[in-house]
Amino acid sequence: MTDRALLVVRAGALTTVQDRGRPGHAHLGVPRSGALDAPAAALANRLVGNPVGAAVLETTLDGCALRPRRPVTVAVAGAPCRVRVDGRPAAWGAAVDVPAGSLVEVGTAVRGVRAYVAVSGGVRVEPVLGSRSTDLLSGLGPPPLADGTVLPLGRPGVPHARVDVAPQPGPPAELVLRVVPGPRADWFTAGALRTFVTGAYRVSGASNRVGLRVEGPALRRSRRGELASEGMVLGAVQVPPDGLPVVFLADHPTTGGYPVLGVVRAADLPAAAQAVPGTPVRFVTVRRRRGAAAG
After folding, report:
1. In contact, 172 and 279? CB cutoff 8 Å
2. Exposure string for 152-180, b = 16+ CB within 10 A, e = fewer
3. Are strands 236-238 and 230-231 parallel, antiparallel or unpaired?
């Protein structure tokens, strides 16, 4: 058995392998998947000298604990959290050299939701359709990590970054999501469209990698008929029968039968990945940029 591997001592509430995902397969019914906070995952990789698209670990709320079988460099980015190596405090947001057999503990998020753990060489589980990402909706990729899982690692590349702490945006105190209207905005009353941009919404605890759910005023439809299933894109704001908008994230379905009120710009979605339940949400309608696709 190779010593270029990582033992998962504690998997935490939900820890998955993620990279940039598998875009371009929606016509086959395959979601994009990938890291919800892609900039944080890319930063963690840069800090340890990996290509930005190398596979990392995405933790949810309570972190994880890992034991490498050989010396590695580790970096944790995304949600601020305590990092320890063999019980001693280590830097968050910086490269940390870890001896073989040492225990790396990524603690509970102090703020935000998801932390990203990059290891020099990257996680080298078998790719599926060009990606090592776990897709919770379709089941593609490796399953969520469990205690005792052993993950293979690649060979380290360039030397890791020499910075004390890399600057990162903090989790949002208020989540502002810019939305390009359509394609089914005409399925809602004028009052509902006003409520959408003026209503007091908050992030729901039912949010997950599939979608950001909100609590707040319901949106009333102007049409009562059924909508044929249509293609869905990253950031689509779908409104199910309860009238509460759902913002589709990385593991979203590729088709859906509820009307899409608009599409959130892709640049706003990393903040959505770090918005804790109860965070205020404000939707702002914007025009489609000329020559650019929505979302």
Report:
1. yes
2. ebbebeeebeeeeebebeebbeebebbbb
3. unpaired
Residues 74-91 as b or e (16 or more Cβ within 10 Å = b): bbbbbbbbebebeeeebb
Question: 26 in helix, strand or coil?
Answer: helix
> What would the pLDDT profile of 192-248 be if each residue is shown by its tens digit?
999 999 999 999 999 999 999 999 999 999 988 788 899 999 999 999 999 999 999
Provide the residue type at 269 as one letter. L
Helix (H) or strand (E) holding 67: strand 64-68
pTM of model > 0.70: yes
Q: CA 86 → CA 28, 166, 192, 278, distances in Å?
A: 46, 23, 54, 34
How far is Cα 294 from Cα 111, in angstroms, rounded to an integer? 30
Q: Is 158 in contact with 94 (CB distance < 8 Å)?
A: no
For residues 1 and 47, is the Cβ–Cβ distance under 8 A? no
